[in-house]
Design a protein that fits this description.
- By secondary structure, the chain is an alpha/beta fold.
- It folds into two domains: about 150 residues, CheA-289, Domain 4 (OB fold (Dihydrolipoamide Acetyltransferase, E2P)); about 140 residues, Response regulator (Rossmann fold, 3-Layer(aba) Sandwich).
- Helices cover about 25% and strands about 30% of the residues.
- It has seven helices and 15 strands.
- A five-stranded mixed β-sheet has the order 8-1-2-10-9, with no helix packed on it. The chain has a five-stranded mixed β-sheet with strand order 3-6-7-5-4.
- α4 packs parallel to α5.
- The N terminus is likely disordered.
């Protein structure tokens, strides 16, 4: 499968998703069912036929199927249905979606793939508006297509559940601000959001957290209004914005572009992060005015980078 960009142009608030499905067999609890899911195309290396792996008895996690060699990598293969607590119908032509993000290559066993959709983040609905049998921490949004709903998976939270070091080693030294700074954090993943909040608290930051760019925009408008009432710069109330790139309703690129176009907010340092910081994405972040861009395995470096940005602007 050819790589596709997470966003088609900088700040257009669009992405492409690969739709796939897991088939559930008929049982005493109900009829056969097909559950539809989606993942960012930019995270997909390729789609391959299942190598017919079986769950090893020694596996620490029941979703682990073993490892396979592929294009110079030895990648773990995970049974996504097991992780989602679904009873998958066993078929002779199951497939493995091979992903690459956060400096990690992994395979996810599913029943099949459907097609690629181009969507705007404003089309991605919040999962808490729908009843779901899954842990909502791994579902970051819902996309409606014709007769079905596609649930967008947070693959980072799945891998972080299996490997807590995904966001970087917590043993590494972390910068601490000499005075208490204030930061706004935007991320749709509760797992990653909690990780960043913990590191910011330890670095002497006050922080406000939201789950998407639209909520961040609302908070920024409130800071701006307060600053205007008090006739003070907005940086007296907020010192930095830290945002994921991929988020429902408004992505990090569009949020950054909006901040840079507002004369009252444009001086606020903005740090973007993603599991997909490639050279092309780095160029896109620069084009919308991001001060720094960090990959998710390096999130432990965020406090130091933010402190340096704040103090250099002062």
């Amino acid at each position: 499968m050819a790589k596709s960009n997470i966003l088609l142009e900088s700040g257009t608030n669009e992405l492409e998703i690969l739709e796939f499905f897991i088939d559930i067999p008929e049982s005493d609890d109900g009829p056969a069912e097909r559950c539809h899911f989606g993942v960012n195309v930019a995270k997909v290396m390729q789609v391959i036929e299942s190598p017919d792996l079986e769950h090893p008895e020694s596996a620490e996690n029941p979703c682990f199927l073993g490892t396979i060699p592929l294009r110079g990598h030895i990648l773990p293969v995970l049974d996504l249905a097991v992780w989602l607590d679904l009873e998958r119908e066993i078929k002779p032509y199951d497939i493995v979606i091979v992903t690459e993000f956060s400096q990690t290559v992994s395979g996810f066993l599913v029943s099949g793939v459907t097609e690629i959709h181009r969507v705007g983040w404003q089309e991605v609905l919040s999962p808490d508006k729908f009843m779901s049998s899954f842990d909502q921490s791994c579902i970051v949004g819902i996309v409606e297509r014709e007769d079905r709903f596609i649930q967008l998976l947070d693959l980072e939270s799945i891998l972080a559940d299996l490997d807590p070091t995904l966001g970087g080693s917590s043993d590494k030294p972390m910068a601490v601000a000499s005075i208490a700074y204030s930061a706004l954090v935007a991320d749709d993943s509760p797992t990653i959001r909690a990780m960043i909040e913990e590191s910011l608290t330890a670095a002497n930051f006050r922080h406000t957290s939201v789950s998407n760019g639209e909520e961040a925009q609302r908070i920024l408008k409130e800071f701006k209004e307060q600053a205007n009432r008090d006739e003070r710069p907005v940086t007296d109330y907020l010192n930095a914005v830290i945002s994921d790139i991929e988020m429902p309703l408004m992505d990090g690129f569009s949020l950054t572009k909006w901040i840079r176009e507002d004369p009252d907010l444009s001086s606020i340092p903005v740090v973007l992060y993603s599991s997909l910081i490639t050279e092309e994405l780095r160029h896109k972040g620069e084009s919308v005015g991001a001060d720094e861009q960090v990959s998710k395995p390096d999130l432990h470096l965020l406090p130091g980078k933010v402190i340096n940005l704040i103090e250099s602007k002062h």
